[in-house]
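#random but structural
TW: two for the price of one
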Amino acid sequence: MAFALLFLIVPTLQIVIGAFRDQDGAFTFANVLHLFQPSILSAYWISIRISVASALLGCVAGFFIAAAVSIGNLPRWMRGPVMTFSGVASNFAGVPLAFAFLATFGRLGLVTVLLRDWFGVNIYAMGFNILSFSGLTLTYLFFQIPLMVLIVTPAIDGLKREWREAAVILGASTPQYWRMVALPILWPTLLGTFALLFANAFGAVATAFALTGSSLSIVPILLFAQIRGDVLQDPHLGYALALGMIVLTGIANGIYIVTRSRAERWIK
């Protein structure tokens, strides 16, 4: 309770109050109204697109990995290393992750050079750029996919063998079982995890700032510029930007909590 009060509730209240204060401390709606400027709306739109793309790709890839280690034909010993790696990778972000992807997919990165020298494929000539929408989405997938694996694996483990056997007895094929039995049961978990991954990507700032700097205008970078910048400094506009992020991530986390509770009730 004390930890949540000091590091979550009080800072959040300070942000909310600061969003409705001017430089002199007087009450105002101007900061919130400034969120509707074209440049700020564009930053929100880019952040939403990146979050949706990384969350969707992370859900798809993570689901197949989780299914493979849970009910697939992979050797059982692979489950432990996959889950251990997922636990580590889901928390690997910030400057180290940005540097790792620059060293891998940068213009002189390892993969970029290997593709160019060994296979004659120049990904940058084809339009790829690590300092872009696609590059940042790819980087986010490094922690989005493992997080999906960690969350969805217990849900897949909860699928009872009797359900599969009953479907087979009634003449259902494997695609029919997944479409009519398994996926409807897993749907609340999948939807909730998508919302959680969206919130996870939407609030990421260290990785995006370290990777792209100011070349990609997303909300966390714009917020950083307003709070700490030398030219664009306007802390109260930064509070308003943070308030918008709190609202969006709060909605996403609310969806996750509701769907998670429903999924747990269905599994029981």
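TW: number two ↓
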Amino acid sequence: MPFEWKHSTDGVDWEELSALYRAAPLGDKSPQHLQTVFSNSLFKCFVYEHSKLVAAGRALADGADCAYLCDIAVLPSHQGTGLGQQLVQALVDLSSGHKKIILYAVPGKEPFYKKFGFMRMKTAMAIFEHPQQQVARGYLGEDQP
């Protein structure tokens, strides 16, 4: 059976999505949190196999200038099958027409995203809720004097 792709939050089981993010592993994101962020994202993809959610991702976008791909998750049983590539490509395609498409990757996964044309930004900066935790996880570099 082929995958079923949905681009709407209608009928999404937010508990199932939360479990997907824990399994992927992309952290512990509550169902309420995921409902808020996916509902506020211009583009979203939910991928089902036999009615089971196996992958999801979203892009925040303003419709013209900037799109930001984030929260791309694939069940471990489906990682390495090409589904993640299809998901990223779908979000890139949905975001086409924006002047820039941005993402930040799990440290070490940059080569995966280079295949889609993403290049390292030299001036990207971020403010995180728990910056020291993100430094430890490799998302942020500590400022040097």
